[in-house]
Design brief:
The chain has 71 residues and is mainly alpha-helical. Helix content is 80%, strand content 0%.
Length: 71
């Protein structure tokens, strides 16, 4: 299956299991890989609410966010 298909499946899983912090991290990484920065940030924010962090992903998303603000 394509990455897009896997993202759709993961989103469906998280709809029924919204407390799966590792799933939210995976979704954030997947959206980041696809260039969906807003969706990646949203998924990562949910993972952080659940107590999960990923320093490299957070830094990458923050840099992208700052770049968008500067434009």
């Amino acid at each position: 299956p394509s990455v897009d298909t896997l993202v759709v499946r993961l989103e469906a899983k998280l709809a029924s299991q919204p407390e799966d912090a590792k799933g939210w991290i995976l979704l954030a990484r997947s959206h980041d890989h696809l260039g969906n920065k807003d969706e990646a940030w949203h998924a990562y924010s949910r993972a952080r609410e659940l107590g999960m962090t990923d320093d490299s992903l957070e830094l990458k998303l923050a840099v992208n966010l700052v770049g968008e603000i500067d434009n």
